[in-house]
């Protein structure tokens, strides 16, 4: 009886590990993604594999910096002598793909032929700087003055490219921007220097000329994307 119980536990453990692995593999790859592209330093569109995409993300993750005793702090002090003042203490900077901003950014084309055909896709996406929590204008000024990254309020990506679409499939383009970020605490002090409040915030800043700026996803499916 004891041996049967142990065998049953081992079988269940093995089945569970297989299910978890299968789920992880499936979740890592969107079946609608036909191809992924980035721009090279010359502005040319280059197709990359999913493995290369993952390596780029790993490199971005490896480049993040922990900030100890930030030297970029610039106090934001209103004109009134007894007004509160503000400071941003930066703790980390880095870059990441904003997959949460990925959406249908182009026209949707349908290949009604029996062979692969090329279609033109026009797409436009505007990405702006973003604070992850609500901040006052003085708090935002403290972040901008205290962070070690350069500020860029917005970027617009607007282009047209031709891609092949498989027969009897819909095709479209989705863009996921790569954004720099800074994170840390915005602290509020009274006029005597006593801390009154602190807020943790991550601020995303669009990249300006840094590579990669964004990933192009060429999508295919037998059905139109939602909303089209």
Task: Describe this entry's structure for a reader.
This protein has 228 residues and is an alpha+beta fold. The chain has one domain (32-221). It is built from 3 helices and 12 strands. It has helices at residues 2-27, 50-62, 137-146; strands at 33-39, 45-48, 65-66, 85-97, 103-104, 109-110, 117-128, 130-131, 154-165, 170-189, 195-206, 214-221. Strands 1, 2, 3, 4, 5, 6, 8, 10, 11 and 12 form a 10-stranded antiparallel β-sheet that branches. A two-stranded antiparallel sheet has the order 7-9. A hairpin with a 5-residue loop joins strand 10 and strand 11 (195-206). The longest helix is centred in the N-terminal third of the chain and has 26 residues, at 2-27. The radius of gyration is 24 Å and the shape is elongated. The model is unreliable at 1-28 (pLDDT under 50). Keywords: Coiled coil, Signal. Residues 46-77 form a coiled coil. Residues 1-24 form the signal peptide.
Summed up, the domain count is 1
The computed structural class is alpha+beta
The rounded Rg comes to: 24 Å
Overall pLDDT score: 83
Give the termini separation: 60 Å
Ranges where pLDDT stays below 50 over 5 or more residues in a row are 1-28
Percentage of helical residues? 10-25%
Largest sheet: 10 strands, antiparallel
Question: What shape does the CA trace take?
Answer: elongated
Oligomeric category: single chain
Order of helical and strand elements: HEEHEEEEEEHEEEE
Q: Counting H and I runs of at least 4 residues, what is the number of helices? A: 3
Query: How much of the polypeptide forms β-strand, as a percent range?
Result: 35-45%
Number of strands: 12
